[in-house]
């Protein structure tokens, strides 16, 4: 078999009655046997697996879906798997119901070749009723304008359709915009004046509450805080009054603790701990504790 240069060239035909050496043999894609030119077809060599690559689809009578049969598998097993997994009887009516033209009195079945969608109502109709008057088309849907600006524009267009009144309409537009801008500026000025009045009132209240003795504390920007309730004061004088009026009255109660506050002789800042007062004088006032 073959030639001296190519000893493996060519193969024998697999048919028992042929056994011909073919230098260009054919391999069957189903039984994977080698055949010559004469026996290359499935019928000529009696192929044992002629349906290996065949695609067979059966329509399910319950759900109208296609069920593909596997060549090497029993059709009963394939059918049983379909019924138990993906069979849906409710799909039968949807698959078998034919779409018809919705025009009154027309029962023509709509297929690919006779279906046209109306450009206004976007509904499929047959060729006979493809125009709007034929199927009583309601026309395109109007855009709903939810903005008052668009309604104002439409109203102005209805009231003044003539082109010679453009100057009057523009003057009205200018007047309207000026009125809107004026109202916005007025509301802004009112808000600013209210805010400034509240600020001045709060500053005046603070000044009346602190007195002259808290001048050095305000200049230094110090804020005193009550060690018991956490209330903040602008000077140590107001803090002492607060402690005497609020906390010393409750000192007679059982379990109440009386707090003594020492004031700095330089900046009038209050301290509960005397050691903290000494450290403050040495650190901030150069170590002199004298007034």
Automatic annotation (TrEMBL):
<feature type="region of interest" description="Disordered">
    <location>
        <begin position="196"/>
        <end position="221"/>
    </location>
</feature>
<dbReference type="GO" id="GO:0005737">
    <property type="term" value="C:cytoplasm"/>
</dbReference>
<dbReference type="InterPro" id="IPR035896">
    <property type="entry name" value="AN1-like_Znf"/>
</dbReference>
<feature type="domain" description="AN1-type">
    <location>
        <begin position="7"/>
        <end position="55"/>
    </location>
</feature>
<dbReference type="InterPro" id="IPR000058">
    <property type="entry name" value="Znf_AN1"/>
</dbReference>
<keyword id="KW-0677">Repeat</keyword>
<feature type="compositionally biased region" description="Polar residues">
    <location>
        <begin position="196"/>
        <end position="219"/>
    </location>
</feature>
<feature type="domain" description="C2H2-type">
    <location>
        <begin position="262"/>
        <end position="290"/>
    </location>
</feature>
<protein>
    <recommendedName>
        <fullName>Zinc finger AN1 and C2H2 domain-containing stress-associated protein</fullName>
    </recommendedName>
</protein>
<dbReference type="Pfam" id="PF01428">
    <property type="entry name" value="zf-AN1"/>
</dbReference>
<dbReference type="Pfam" id="PF25403">
    <property type="entry name" value="zf-C2H2_ZFAND2"/>
</dbReference>
<dbReference type="Pfam" id="PF13894">
    <property type="entry name" value="zf-C2H2_4"/>
</dbReference>
<keyword id="KW-0863">Zinc-finger</keyword>
<dbReference type="GO" id="GO:0008270">
    <property type="term" value="F:zinc ion binding"/>
</dbReference>
<keyword id="KW-0862">Zinc</keyword>
<comment type="function">
    <text>May be involved in environmental stress response.</text>
</comment>
<dbReference type="InterPro" id="IPR057357">
    <property type="entry name" value="Znf-C2H2_ZFAND2A/B"/>
</dbReference>
<feature type="domain" description="AN1-type">
    <location>
        <begin position="95"/>
        <end position="145"/>
    </location>
</feature>
<feature type="domain" description="C2H2-type">
    <location>
        <begin position="224"/>
        <end position="254"/>
    </location>
</feature>
<dbReference type="InterPro" id="IPR013087">
    <property type="entry name" value="Znf_C2H2_type"/>
</dbReference>
<keyword id="KW-0479">Metal-binding</keyword>
